[in-house]
Amino acid sequence: MTKREAFWYTVIILLLVITVLIALMVGATPLTLSQVWQAFSGHDSNNLATLSQIRLPRIVASLISGAMLAVAGALSQAAFHNYLADPSILGVTNVGSFLILIASFFLPSLYFGKLVFALIGGILTLLFLTSRSILQHSYKLIIIGVTISLTFSGFQQLFSGESLVSTNSFNGITWSDTITVFIIRLIGLAAAILLSPWANYLKMSNQQLETRGISARLIRICLLGLVVWLSSGVTAAVGVVPFIGIIVPNIVRFLVGRDYQTIVPLSMLMGAWLLLVADTIGRTVILPGEMPVATILTVVGGPFLIWLLWRQQFNAIK
Amino acid sequence: MDLTSVAKLKHVVTQMGHQYQRQAQAKRAIRQINAAEKRARQRAKDQPTKVKVLVLMGLPGASYMAGTNHSYIGNLVVLAGGKNVFMSKNQEYIQPNDEAIKKARPDVILRLEHALPEMVTAQFNQAFKTDPMWKTLPAVKNHRVYDLQEPDFDATANMRAAVALQKISRWLYPHTGGNNQ
Amino acid sequence: MQLNNVSFSYHQQAEIIHDVSADVTPGHILSIVGPNGAGKTTLSKLMTGELKPSRGAVMLDGEPLSQLTRKQRADQIAIVSQQNQLYDDMKVIDVVKMGRLAKHGLLAAIDDQEVAPYLAMTGLQSFANRPMSQLSGGQKQRVWIAAAIAQDPQYLFLDEPTTYLDIRYQTELMAIIEKLHRQQQMTIVMILHDINQAFRMSDDIWLIKAGKLVSTGQPNQFYDERSLSEIFNTAIRIVSIPDYGKYIVELPDGAN
């Protein structure tokens, strides 16, 4: 680990700890740090219920979801050779989300049903995007991805039959959601760290990999499989959460360079932090209502994306 | 047509009566509504405290929003003498926060299931079962959670407003007058 | 390595390589020489297994190359091709480490020590942690050679390794290749743009024209103005330069 990497690891871990503490304190019933402590040491059962049943599962869920989305973004960018290729931009998550809605007409709201449909949606989208020659043209890839994404969110609005679009959020997330969903996902995150060197290997052309005895196809399929696995997990649990997968890996690249063995774990931490910040803001700024985390991230992510494109002809990795 | 409150409904009915030469029918309908409003006021009068009401609108796809005083159902709650726990200056529906719901401690929960009622009811039941926050609410403890379904109830006012108001009034104050408290 | 009646064509189109049969002598430096479009790169790709012959076979230790797995080929054959660009920046040492993957599993963690010798052989020790994007063309080419020899191959194929390099880097690179050849006893197959470079460095020369192997032999057999003029289809003179030796020059048009 270089000095620079160690510095940023420290900064982000510190930010994470501070943000988790703040997230425990704020809400409809604001608590001081000592009240939080009192509650956890068993002196205040009412506050403990709020903390352990409402705030904590939500904090854990947003941390893990943020980590998953950021990593999915980083791996997808490596596999597509494109810094903008995030599952939410490519439509992977929107198709999944639409299929979940369709499925819920026919099946009762089973969690694993949702997961399966989010996965199917993601896989179909990736199969489509990796087929033909779309892969080779970075602008084409992004344009087609965005089109898919918009089309399916349009379908979703249509099928919801309402002017009010179902905006999923972390509100109402419970321990049982958190545990059943995310324990499985943690395996995905561990796999991402283990396979992060593969993301580096894909910086070489397929032919160069072949001559070194490596199947580029195998590596790409594994990484994209992991991308769908991670992003569909979040879609199934809380709906489409945009932009984390673009913002975080690109900031991390700016901070520590291009080595995916650092980008992946650091994106994980930073993604966790960013989504927790966004969700904590979302659930406190307009109490008793909530601002969906997707809205906040769009407000932040949109300008970031424009800046990214404007600052350098960024999207084709060269 | 803006049909987000009973008053607006009456206005629209009067206008349409004019337009289509059906003033008599329009007047009859409005009389019915007025009578229902009056009965509801009677029922709510003399109650020592206003009942706290949470209006939920279920959306297909596992989420829900809270209806404010600006939504049609929220307006019925006002007319029935209840206190909506989610007030707003201009929005009909807001995305509610669990903690805020817990803190508000509603006595009655009205769940609107107008689109795809079967699916939305299943979602509501699932959410109420799995999320421990709901069990802490007086409404759930005292079994005062009511499902609002078509044709009497909808997201906007319809000609069954009188029936709808009467139902909500009875749910909010099941005992007439103040002497039963 | 043996080539037995190797022919190649894309799909059903006209053959690019016709019936080439020859042996590669182990431990030698072999240069494939011929005019542009003669099929040099195609022939070398057939010899590395990147392309499969439409007829005939390339045999490696008595087995057809086409029947070896990707991994088995990588164990024996390393390639420095003309297309060496990266899609994204990498550190020098990480590029070289990827060569070692030919000897390890996909999940292996390769430590710095393991690639240190290859960096040393190519004089890259002090560049190990530099990003590729900060290197000059010649330095980059050295990294690709280091990555190839990190495969510890029997055969090293170099396709135009000196193209795009200025003359100082060309000489430097050739010195490195000669050193490697001496130290590692590697069989080296090169395609060289510069015919004089090829003749000076090689033990063996294959002359090809229009997809056919015209002749094979040691370089000194080929210092013949007439046959060279015929092969390259241009007027060629051989001159003697003091302190250098024979030098092949192409005459300007009409000077014949």
TrEMBL record, chain A:
This is Probable heme-iron transport system permease protein IsdF. Keywords: Cell membrane, Iron, Membrane, Transmembrane, Transmembrane helix, Transport. One of its GO terms (cellular component) is plasma membrane. The lineage of its organism: Bacteria, Bacillati, Bacillota, Bacilli, Lactobacillales. Belongs to the binding-protein-dependent transport system permease family. FecCD subfamily. Part of the binding-protein-dependent transport system for heme-iron. Responsible for the translocation of the substrate across the membrane. Its main location: membrane. The keyword Magnesium does not apply. It comes from Lentilactobacillus parafarraginis DSM 18390 = JCM 14109. GO terms for molecular function: transmembrane transporter activity. GO terms for biological process: siderophore-iron import into cell. It is found in: Cell membrane. It is a multi-pass membrane protein.
From TrEMBL, chain B:
It holds the Pfam family Peripla_BP_2. InterPro entries: ABC_Transporter_SBP (IPR050902), ABC_transptr_periplasmic_BD (IPR002491). Residues 1-176 form the Fe/B12 periplasmic-binding domain. SUPFAM superfamilies: Helical backbone' metal receptor. GO terms for biological process: cellular response to iron ion. It comes from the Bacteria. Belongs to the bacterial solute-binding protein 8 family. PANTHER family: HIGH-AFFINITY HEME UPTAKE SYSTEM PROTEIN ISDE, VITAMIN B12-BINDING PROTEIN. This is Heme ABC transporter, heme-binding protein isdE.
From TrEMBL, chain C:
GO terms for molecular function: ATP binding; ATP hydrolysis activity. It comes from the Bacteria. The keyword ATP-binding applies. The keyword Lipoprotein does not apply. Keywords: ATP-binding, Nucleotide-binding, Translocase, Transport. PROSITE patterns: ABC_TRANSPORTER_1, ABC_TRANSPORTER_2. Residues 1-235 form the ABC transporter domain. InterPro entries: AAA+_ATPase, ABC_transporter-like_ATP-bd, ABC_transporter-like_CS, P-loop_NTPase. Signal peptide: none annotated. This is ABC transporter, ATP-binding protein. It comes from Lentilactobacillus parafarraginis DSM 18390 = JCM 14109.
